[in-house]
């Protein structure tokens, strides 16, 4: 045997699986098709600007991040906890009153915040705020839209802020995702202050891969995976590797390439990155568009932020970086650059003529579909010698990817130790 376990894919799930196997005393080899680790967590550095592939943030409140990641080493640059809500009348700030007490009077006096909505939000969030496990696997899960309606959360707080914010977080504007999944995410947003690592989101998987004794084999796509003669064989362009077990931790769109498991449904987004000629002056808060009649975005941009005001390391000194996100489940999710510029002019109330497009990323499989019910955790073992890991096996988040990878590593180590695999 070349190794005990072959892990295919060096995204967050694959890297955490390998780290767990290594801690369990197993020999592990990680094969990655791309030239860098991270999977969907990637950062392009272009002319000194850091542009993550898809708008991503790291929430230090995720239990898996607290347990397995050195957040202090990442030097997290934090967003404000809240959002700027833009309407035709201007932008107003809605901030977490406990995190930003000086902004509490303006927030509580905002027309986007009504007492009935706040009570309904607490009613909707109540079970999971008290104890995460109470709502995470509840049998009465339903769609997010239906759940919010049932809680009576139907006013401006939902129309102008919550629906748009969650659509961007979930890459799904339909309201059809699991309500229990959305509650979990909202719980972690309530408890933590998400941010961006100093070196970009890619610093997260790079920190994880640095702890592996054997470096990840980059640029090594697996063409075929076979269970044969009491072992598993992974065929690459440079030859075959043999192991006692394999863990498939590729992106959801590639799950069916190496296994009999069909590719799970997924939602996508597009993120645009611009060098602005002047500082937008919106501070550390995400901006949401609520200019459409009845609430919601009046254009293709669902959220935008002056990233350089949140994370100065994302731009060269004295430069200004703006991101804008569209959703692929919308007709204008693949809008042209001129349309995006026009929408940003409306949102920031300034000309974007002198803004320079740095890059844009279309991410069609950003997150698994995650319809209700959230249900029980999907098993990791898919046949005698193959296991699977990924956020589509848990839930679509950094937390889900890390937990799935760790569970796969534990399961594989247990099989090897117990003699369940010979």
pLDDT average, as an integer? 93
Report the radius of gyration as a whole number of Å.
Answer: 22 Å
- What top-tier CATH class of the largest domain fits best? Alpha Beta
* Helix fraction bin: 25-40%
What is the annotated CATH architecture of the largest domain?
Answer: Alpha-Beta Complex
* Helix/strand/pairing category: alpha+beta
Report strand %: 15-25%
Span of the ends, CA to CA: 12 Å
Please give a structural write-up.
This protein is α+β, with helices and mostly antiparallel strands and about 425 residues long. The chain has 2 domains: about 5-40 and about 200-265 and about 370-420, FAD/NAD(P)-binding domain; about 45-60 and about 75-195 and about 265-370, Polyamine Oxidase, Chain A, domain 2. Helices cover about 30% and strands about 25% of the residues. Strands 1, 2, 9, 10, 11, 17 and 18 form a 7-stranded mixed β-sheet that branches. Strand 1 (about 5-10), helix 1 (about 10-25) and strand 2 (about 30) form a beta-alpha-beta unit. Helix 1 runs parallel beside helix 10, helix 1 (about 10-25) packs parallel to helix 14 and helix 5 (about 115-130) crosses helix 9.
Summarize the structure.
This protein is of the alpha+beta class and 422 residues long. The chain has helices at residues 12-23, 63-68, 71-74, 104-108, 115-130, 132-136, 144-150, 156-170, 179-191, 203-210, 255-258, 307-310, 337-348, 398-418, and strands at 3-8, 28-31, 43-46, 49-52, 77-78, 82-87, 90-95, 195-196, 222-228, 231-236, 239-248, 266-276, 286-289, 303-306, 320-327, 356-368, 381-383, 386-388. Helices cover 31% and strands 24% of the residues.
